[in-house]
Amino acid sequence: MGERIAIILAMGLGTYLLRVSPLLFAHRLSLGPRILRWFQFVSYAVIASFVWFGLTRAASPAGTMGFRIIALGLTILVAVRTKNALLGMAAGIAAVLILARVGS
Amino acid sequence: MSASFREGALASIPVCVAFFAITVAFGIAAHASGLAAGEVLLMSAVVFAGPAQFPAIELLPLSGQAVQILLSTLFINFRFAVMSFALVPHLKRVRTGGLMVGAQLVTMSTFAVSFLRFQRRSDHDNFIYFLGVAIPSYACYLLGTVVGYHFGVRIPAGFDEGISLIFPAYLTALLAAELRERRSIVVVGVAFLATPVVETLVPGWGLILNALVVATAAIGVEAWWESALPSS
After folding, report:
1. How many domains, in total, are found in chain A?
2. Which of B37, B140, B184, B207 could hold B16 in an S-S bridge, CB 3.0 to 4.6 Å?
3. Which residues contact residue A16 at a Cβ distance below 8 angstroms, ignoring those fewer than 6 apart?
4. pLDDT tens for residues B213-232?
């Protein structure tokens, strides 16, 4: 039990240092527009990568991947049309639930 | 409660829904792994990063896995350093103590919501807005962990597919609702399509490396394009 707690605390400390170091040591740097633009692109790219990660990480039957892609398509459509992320998410989740029921 | 905090708290509702669903799943898996309730809640509180916590609950019950757990946690969570760097220009006026507290609350989702808002409107209340997003999200994260561990053992099988889609659907909806600039949309599309390739080439590092490569390439293309325009 003690060893596990120590490992969990070390996980937390390591993660915290990754989070806090840039905030503490870089916030006084004067960054040029090109660097800021790069950070912006990195951030969008990380989010996009996580969409892929989230889309593929769940251990689903192979056939449901098509449903998930269709559901994400609907998510995009609803979110773009309504400019509301929550509605887009709800539409996507409802779609995948319906498709999974219909397809099973 | 300030207007910026309230605005952030409202924007955190989808994050809360996603975090609650994700951590209910985490709590269920942690219970199944034989971890104690205190260990599971402590992990959610101090790590606050689902992608690092799921592998850890598989390895923690085994002996001699400390180094592997810690290294995988650092590799997986390296993205937080990139996110914190991206937040730096928007949090310049925040005192060190505030940054030290706020840093713990930087996650993929709290970052994404805050960063996209800062792109639209960045002002002196940025940090308050960030806290408005992050504090309710953190509370939902902990609550979901407790609920999953104690009460969520039986989830109807038909809902698994919907629950597993919450995380990607949320991020997709966020990008779709916020992104308007064509070049940024191209960056998002290329990054999405390139991720499986880079992840296959560099397993475990693909997400971050892909983002760095795509962003650098985009900056290079943009600089070339802008320099080429006058002569064309």
Report:
1. 1
2. B140
3. B46, B103, B104
4. 999 999 999 999 888 876 54
Separation between Cα atoms, residue B36 and residue A78, nearest integer Å: 41
Read off the pLDDT of residues B24-33 as tens digits, 9 standing for 90 and up. Answer: 878 887 887 7
Is position A88 within any domain? yes
Q: How many H helices and E strands in chain B?
A: 12, 0
Which residue type, as a one-letter code, is found at position B148?
G
Amino acid making up residue B99: L
Judged by a CB distance cut-off of 8 A, whether residue B205 touches chain A is no
Q: With 0-12 CB in 10 A as exposed, 13-18 as middle and 19+ as buried, what is B183?
A: middle
DSSP state of B62: S
For the full predicted model, state whether its pTM sits above 0.90: no
Q: Nearest chain B residue to A100 by CA: give it.
A: B161
Q: Is B100 on the interface with A (CB under 8 A)?
A: yes
Domain ranges of chain B: 3-178, 180-232
Q: Kindly tell me if the per-residue pLDDT of B133 is higher than 90.
A: yes
Number of residues in chain A: 104
Reference B46, options B98, B97, B96, B105; nearest CA is B105
Domain that holds residue A68: 61-104
Nearest by CB to A83, from B177, B188, B212: name it. B177
Is A102 a member of any domain? yes
- Tell me which chain B residues have a C-beta less than 8 angstroms from the C-beta of A85: 14, 170, 173-174, 176-178
